[in-house]
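Researcher: Let's continue the batch. This sequence belongs to Thrombospondin-3a, and it's 308 residues. Same format as the previous ones, please.
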Amino acid sequence: MCFQCNVGWAGNGHTCGMDTDIDGYPDRSLPCIDNDKHCKQDNCVFTPNSGQEDADNDGIGDQCDEDADGDGIKNVEDNCRLVPNKDQQNSDSDSFGDSCDNCPTVPNSDQKDTDNNGQGDACDQDIDGDGIPNVLDNCPKVPNPMQTDRDRDGVGDACDSCPELSNPMQTDVDNDLVGDVCDTNQDTDGDGHQDTRDNCPDIPNSSQLDSDNDGLGDDCDHDDDNDGVNDDYDNCRLIINPNQKDSDANGVGDVCENDFDNDAVMDLIDVCPESAEVTLTDFRAFQTVILDPEGEAQIDPNWVVLNQ
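Model: Same format as before. Here are the structure tokens for Thrombospondin-3a:
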């Protein structure tokens, strides 16, 4: 049986204590026999911080520590809030000090890093990390090592809004990611994907999930893993297992017993156990949406991502 603490309380389910900020950690340490991490005292009792991040390891969580990196400079004045930098050097004069700037000599306040290699796009000679330098890459921001360009318009298929029709200017008046020269505006199933680019044109499937990469989306593919066994009878719908071996006769094949989508993340902690493309919810790549683009009737949101 699985036990859990009530809302406003935290602990291992057997032992619970008050959790004022409701972030999963008790206000005071609890005497839990199993040493569960959620029995440890909250390092920010009145401020939610589910990750308990503490950059300077001083016992005070970053979210309520006036000097999160412990460099003697208060957060409100620190140009590297989580990285010690007493000198506050900022060579490119953007919003980030050299110590935490992924392009210390090139201004880039957005710190965008497409290939997540630690070097910002503004100063990365290979933005998408596909081994092709930006100056030679026909899709500099989308990985395409083969540089395939079927319509020979200079824009690689991987980022071409009309990969089969020449449109070097990539004109897209309605901003639907389908170039004007091939935009038919026909979307039979209304899932946001034009029929000519929809792997299930008659069945709504906005995710376009295609587990076996056969060009037919899972929602309209009767054999998602392409193992010759129809999905209705396949005990491992997403993993090839033509022999359908099921040692414990529980209806789930041996090869997908605890990991249905074969993404190396156990189903128990997999937020999308039926899609190998998604394993966890990660808001680090968030985008700010301006809710009130004109005037000052509404204060724009300030997103803060905690615990990844």
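Researcher: Any comment?
Model: The mean pLDDT is 92.
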